[in-house]
Amino acid sequence: MNYNTIILTKDEGVATLTLNRPEVLNAWNGEMGTEALHALEEIRGDNEVRVLVITGAGRGFSSGADLSPGARTKKAGRTTLSTLPGVVTVAYTLHNLDRPTIAAVNGVAVGAGFGVALACDIRIASEQARFSQIFVKRAIVPDTGSTYFLTKLVGTAKACELMFTGDFVDAAEAERLGIVNKVVPHEELMNEAQALAKRIASGPPLTIELIKRAVYKGFLESDLARQVHFEMYLNQLAHTTEDYKEGVTSFLEKREPKFMGK
Question: What is the model's pTM?
Answer without folding.
Answer: 0.86
